[in-house]
């Protein structure tokens, strides 16, 4: 079982709930060490004086704020410690807001909040239930590892979830960073209708396990192959698809690709549907539209397949 990385008390009003903070995510990126070619010897970084080229002991290194033109303000650890936020063991909820009011750009990192001790469970469960029913999120602040955090506490499926957040002045204004913002344009009815059809045909239920880090998988496979002594032959990069300059044409081609057929291919017949097990989700969705299957836009591929089978069977029974 995982151990809490921080323990303290979640407070809202006069109610206090002992809680523990647990990491909700983990980095599975394949990491590499630096080694010398041909020897396999590790290569390590050294702290070197930029002017003299001599190595500097860690104890002789202090923090310096760059003023520009090689000018620095030196700040000692003791001076920084005197300014550090007071150590606290509380997550103080100051406000409750609607989750939809918080732009996801403010979310930084996700943690789980779990009750600590049997006596904390009732108050914890009450807070989680009320927040879920009112669809509210608690905005809080707390200190962890000498750093003050802004946080959002929200009800998850099984536990309370804490999202550390960026402060307002840490989020860049796109108008100041990107030239030509905001971007606007005028579109024909055909472009709008085709774009909406494309989005609808690609709409799916959110299923996290459907998405994988394919690059990481390929890197792990490469490492395994090289570990087993296999000679690696690099394949040429795939050709880039030709650009389509006309927006309406690009949308139409995308829609046809999503439906899994060319313009000339006939649409599936309702009376004699193709083997639905071999159909793409886009094809299933189109057939479900022809069969007038209710709720089809929110169905997964498996649900579409089952609904199409059932609707097709009902159609054939009525026809007979």
Structure, described:
This protein has 320 residues and is an alpha+beta fold. Among the domains are: 6-24 and 84-170, Ku70, Chain: A, Domain 2 (Beta Barrel), CATH 2.40.290.10; 185-216 and 246-320, no CATH class. It has eight helices and nine strands. The protein has helices at 77-83, 120-134, 174-177, 189-201, 214-227, 247-259, 281-290, 301-319, and strands spanning 6-12, 15-23, 63-68, 71-75, 90-98, 107-115, 136-144, 147-155, 160-165. It has a seven-stranded mixed barrel. A two-stranded antiparallel ribbon has the order 3-4.
Spatial order of strands in the largest sheet: 1-2-6-9-8-7-5
- Calculate the mean pLDDT score and round it: 84
**Structural class category:** alpha+beta
Number of strand elements: 9
Distance between the termini: 60 Å
Main beta-sheet strand count, sense and barrel state: 7 strands, mixed, barrel
The count of helical stretches stands at 8
Helix and strand succession?
EEEEHEEHEEEHHHHHH
Draw up the topology in text:
Elements lengths: L5 E7 L2 E9 L39 E6 L2 E5 L1 H7 L6 E9 L8 E9 L4 H15 L1 E9 L2 E9 L4 E6 L8 H4 L11 H13 L12 H14 L19 H13 L21 H10 L10 H19 L1
Parallel strand pairs: 1-5
Antiparallel strand pairs: 1-2, 2-6, 3-4, 5-7, 6-9, 7-8, 8-9
């Amino acid at each position: 079982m995982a151990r809490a990385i921080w323990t303290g008390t979640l407070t809202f009003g006069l109610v206090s709930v002992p809680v523990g903070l647990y990491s909700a995510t983990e980095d599975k990126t394949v990491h590499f060490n630096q080694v010398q070619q041909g020897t396999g010897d590790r290569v390590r970084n050294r702290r070197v004086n930029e002017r003299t080229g001599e190595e500097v002991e860690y104890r002789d290194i202090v923090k310096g704020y760059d003023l520009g033109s090689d000018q620095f303000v030196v700040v000692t650890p003791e001076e920084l410690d005197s300014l550090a936020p007071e150590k606290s063991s509380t997550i103080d909820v100051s406000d409750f807001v609607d989750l939809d009011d918080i732009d996801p750009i403010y979310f930084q990192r996700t943690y789980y909040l779990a009750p600590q001790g049997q006596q904390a469970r009732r108050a914890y469960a009450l807070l989680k239930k009320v927040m879920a029913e009112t669809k509210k999120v608690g905005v809080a602040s707390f200190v962890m590892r000498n750093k003050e955090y802004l946080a959002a506490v929200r009800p998850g499926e099984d536990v309370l979830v804490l999202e550390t957040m960026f402060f307002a002045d840490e989020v860049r204004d796109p108008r100041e960073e990107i030239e030509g913002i905001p971007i606007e344009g005028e579109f024909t009815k055909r472009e709008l209708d085709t774009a909406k059809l494309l989005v609808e045909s690609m709409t799916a239920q959110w299923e996290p396990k459907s998405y994988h880090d394919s690059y990481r998988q390929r890197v792990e496979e490469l490492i395994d192959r090289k570990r087993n002594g296999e000679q690696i032959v690099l394949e040429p990069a795939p050709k880039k698809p030709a650009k389509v300059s006309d927006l309406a044409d690009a949308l139409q081609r995308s829609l046809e690709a999503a439906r899994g057929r060319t313009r000339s291919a006939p649409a599936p017949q309702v009376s004699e549907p193709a083997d639905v097990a071999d159909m793409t989700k886009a094809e299933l969705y189109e057939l479900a539209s022809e069969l007038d299957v209710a709720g089809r836009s929110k169905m997964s591929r498996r649900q579409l397949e089952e609904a199409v089978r059932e609707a097709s069977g009902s159609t054939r029974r009525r026809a007979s």
